[in-house]
Amino acid sequence: MAANVQSTVIYDGGNKTVLKVVGSFGAANTTNTTLLVSNTLYGANAAGGKICLLNILKLYYHVSLAGRVSLEWISSVNTNATILTFGGQSGGAFLEQAFNNNANTPTGDLNLNVQNAQANDVFDFVITFNKDTGVYGAPYAGAWANVNAGY
Fold first, then answer.
1. Closest by alpha carbon to 124, among 3, 34, 28, 7?
2. Among 27, 60, 67, 145, which residue's Cβ finds the most Cβ atoms within 10 Å?
3. How many CA atoms lie within 13 A of 148 on its CB side?
4. Is residue 94 within a helix (H) or strand (E), and if so which, with residue range?
């Protein structure tokens, strides 16, 4: 069995989105997967090249990994920006900490990078995102239509 990675938006409202990601591996695997495309979410207004930026507010994770799994902000022209990397460990935690999108030329999208996953490696994440409304100005002003100002 190859990689089995599933991502599901479990809530998508005015200023927040919650994403659940579950992965399991039946054999060694290395893969890249786009987990979330921000301009497909409620209120996205990507007209005129606007970037629908997301920031992480909270992250729950549980991992049992011999390999490595990284969450990344996708960059349109440069290397993706790593948010967190998990590997060679078992455990879980709830991080109530902001992780701002610091990708150079960000798209607003989220990527999963898997390196050297082994048979029986598993992980799950529940991630709460804030929609960056750009209320304080460019470059994200107006990218989220009809949504409340994020907090």
1. 7
2. 67
3. 9
4. strand 81-95
Say what the pLDDT of residue 136 is: 54
pLDDT in tens, 4-34: 899 999 999 988 999 999 999 988 888 889 9
**C-alpha closest to that of 73 among 109, 41, 44, 40:** 109
Task: Please confirm whether the linkage preceding 106 is cis (ω < 30° from 0).
Answer: no
At the topology level, CATH places domain 3-131 in Jelly Rolls (2.60.120)
Q: In the chain, how long is the greatest CA-to-CA distance?
A: 48
* Locus of tokens 């992480």: 56
> CB count, 10 Å around CB of 46?
16
Q: Whole-angstrom Cα distance, residue 140 to residue 52?
A: 7
Share of the chain above pLDDT 90, in %: 45
Dihedral angle sign, alpha carbons of residues 84, 30, 11, 147: positive
Place of tokens 């990284």: 70
**Interval 85-110 mean pLDDT:** 87
Is 12 in a helix, a strand, or coil? strand
The answer to whether residue 149 scores a pLDDT higher than 60 is no
- What CA–CA distance (Å, rounded) separates 114 from 69? 5
